[in-house]
Design brief:
With about 400 residues, this protein is an alpha/beta fold. It has 14 helices and 14 strands. Helix 7 packs across helix 14.
Length: about 400
């Protein structure tokens, strides 16, 4: 499929397109009223966009007075966006139209033998991207932008510092055949965007998303936008000095190692009495036993939740977000919420603390939203200079074979 070039639009056409992307299908009189455009201007804008295939008719609506109005929405030439979450064990891709209509969700496990391989992970990313585009088909045009969420700091300064696992190397296959911009973003930042637009933070312009799982991370949203910091590394709370002790010196990423689920299970195993049988082998098993009411498991879940609560209190003290959304394999478990709330309340001022409403799907959804906003910006001739965008490596058409 051919990739459309950015059109040259009048200001009124740009306003119409922007509103349709934000609101979805709407009648022409409603468009004119919201944008305060005259009928001739409105007609000219819709005609211009329709001729380009960026806007199309979705039928008509009969109002209370019996008058019929044509409903307009984004057309196939507007295309769609794809968000890809590159996890430790699987890759998930989600495709949406630019006005947020869900089109496809594809997941694929990364074979164990490929998880440490650049080529192996890249093959799975490419496979999932192709499958998502094949599932969408031609009805909704071509992909405009792909956003890939990766578990590391993403900024122009940090790109390529680790050649073995750099995003550029992992995405080599994707960039070889896909001739659209590829955005890179930190996975926790994308999860925060997912919660902002679809989840527990939907009505909040200021909040923080705290991921607690194998690793920890913080996504900060201020005035409805990601706060990335000077180096693009805002939210790397695993770098907080830990422990603070008279006898022990802090170690690099010591807090991340301590709060990670692997370290939790090691501590749990060391404490587990032999007479109570085998210790849990994973955080998932530990939480399952706690949910069943096993006292020893409940004790360790409560202890870990208290540690998370102390970190939440630190986040509240630093950012004052008003809302903390807990996510990640451990953080999103409802069993931790009550203790986290109790400990945070004791250590700092009141703030809402909620569990993710999206679970593991938050990251891919946030990446899709990021891709859609960037794609719309390209059509409108607007650019977001804070994003890290990888250009295609070759010229040619996108294929989804």
């Amino acid at each position: 499929m051919d990739i459309p070039s950015p059109p040259i639009l009048t200001e009124s056409s740009r306003a119409v397109l922007r509103l349709l992307a934000m609101r979805g299908p709407i009648t022409r009189p409603q468009l004119g009223a919201i944008l305060d455009l005259s009928k001739p201007t409105m007609s000219a804008a819709v005609s211009e966009l329709s001729a380009m295939g960026l806007v199309t008719s979705f039928g008509s609506h009969k109002g209370a007075m019996g008058r019929t109005a044509v409903i307009y929405g984004l057309g196939p030439a507007a295309g769609y966006a794809v968000g890809i979450d590159v996890g430790e064990a699987q890759v998930r891709a989600v495709a949406h139209t630019l006005d947020d209509l869900p089109l496809a969700t594809i997941e694929e496990q990364i074979p164990r033998r490929q998880r440490g391989s650049i080529e192996g992970v890249g093959e799975v990313i490419e496979s999932v991207a192709r499958a998502a585009m094949l599932a969408v088909g031609d009805k909704h045009g071509s992909p405009r932008t792909v956003a890939v969420a990766v578990p590391r700091i993403v900024s122009q300064h940090h790109l390529g510092q680790n050649k073995r696992r750099s995003p550029e190397a992992i995405l080599q296959q994707l960039r070889n055949w896909l001739e659209v911009p590829v955005i890179l973003e930190n996975n926790v930042n994308c999860a925060a965007l997912g919660e902002l637009h679809y989840g527990a933070a939907k009505s909040h312009d200021v909040f923080a998303y705290l991921q607690v799982g194998v690793r920890i991370g913080l996504g900060i949203v201020i005035n409805g936008k990601l706060f990335r910091g000077f180096n693009g590394a805002a939210g790397e709370i695993g770098r907080l000095p830990f422990p603070w002790s008279l006898s022990d010196s802090p170690t690099r990423e010591g807090l991340e190692h301590y709060l990670g689920s692997n370290a939790l299970i090691r501590r749990c195993t060391e404490d587990w009495p032999e007479e109570e049988g085998p210790a849990p082998v994973s955080a998932k098993e530990l939480f399952a036993w706690a949910e069943e009411g096993l006292p020893r498991a409940e004790k360790w879940v409560t202890r870990h939740a208290a540690d998370i609560g102390r970190l939440v209190a630190a986040c509240i003290g630093m950012v004052d977000p008003g809302l903390i959304v807990l996510g990640g394999g451990v953080g999103q478990n409802p069993l931790v919420l009550k203790e986290v709330q109790r400990v945070a309340r004791e250590l700092t001022w009141a703030a809402d603390i909620a569990v993710s409403a999206l679970g593991p799907g938050a990251t891919a959804l946030g990446a899709t939203r990021l891709a859609a906003e960037h794609a719309l910006g390209l059509i409108l001739g607007e650019s977001n200079r804070s994003l890290v965008v990888l250009p295609s490596l070759r010229t040619g058409a996108v294929t989804a074979r």
